[in-house]
Amino acid sequence: IISRPEGNPNRFRIILVFRTPEKRFAAWAMPLYSMIADMVHKAKDRILNSRAWQEMRRMDANLYTVLSMRSFNRGPPMLPEAGDQDSETFHVAAGKSLGLTTWSRFPLSDTGRFCLADYLWRFMQKLGHKLTTHKTLDGRMLVGYQCVVLREDWEKVNPFFWEAFRIQKAAYRHANGGSTAPSLTQDVSPNLLVEEPEEWQRSTSRASSASSASAIPSSVKMVVRNTFLELEEDVNHKPPMRRTRSDMSCLSGEVDNFSV
């Protein structure tokens, strides 16, 4: 069963899928299916319009909060470090009172995209706090600069985060220059991805590559050079040529009648 809001605060779409194998039921039972569906519809209306369900929806609306990060065009945000890690660390005197004087850039994923869920989890881990972050909402993927956390968990670490994040802004300006720095906003509207998940795209790409490779005969060798494909034929595997038979009597008649 899937329940999703329709945009109107008081309207939801309920999807219920169930199977009834036809071969396992007698023919006389088929008319009863419409009665069962009608009973389920009435039970759904009774449950979803009850006071308990409305209270549950009110609690669910405040169960999670959507966080969003902006203004990090000069590079990924910064992470606090325990000490001098390498040449890529930056020192900020403003964080001396909190013990957060050394900062480094947050490493991006292999795809080069920023993921707020991973960053917040790593940021709070560096501060010694545990925060569970989510990349999806209602089973759908959020954009990289947004994530979802339990409101109760977020309120617990809120004071520690904002205090350290203020130093992070100073470290970001020190490392990248300029006057802008990453900012975080909570209780924003979620932006969901519409394209296909990356894992599905990769699996589809691998499948299409495998099918393309299988279409090439085994006797043909493939050489990849830069962005071009060169096919090298194996001379030892050329198919034998067959001589076709022709009716020479018909051909001789045509030749005799031809003159220059």
Q: What would you note in describing this structure?
A:
With 260 residues, this protein is α+β, with helices and mostly antiparallel strands. Helices cover 35% and strands 20% of the residues. The chain has 6 helices and 13 strands. It has helices at residues 32-48, 51-61, 116-126, 151-176, 198-214, 248-256, and strands at 2-5, 12-15, 64-70, 78-81, 90-91, 102-105, 133-134, 136-137, 140-141, 146-150, 183-186, 220-225, 228-233. A hairpin with a 2-residue loop joins strand 8 (136-137) and strand 9 (140-141). Residues 248-260 have low confidence and may be disordered.
Stretches with pLDDT under 50, minimum 5 residues: 248-260
By DSSP, the count of extended strands is 13
N/C terminus separation: 88 Å
Percentage of residues in strands? 15-25%
The whole-angstrom Rg is 33 Å
Task: Figure out the total of helices.
Answer: 6
- Widest beta sheet: strand line-up: 7-10-3-11
Shape: elongated
Question: What structural class results from the helix and strand content?
Answer: alpha+beta
Sequence of secondary-structure elements: EEHHEEEEHEEEEHEHEEH
Q: Characterize the largest beta sheet: strand count, sense, and whether it forms a barrel.
A: 4 strands, antiparallel
Helical fraction equals 25-40%
Mean pLDDT over the residues: 77
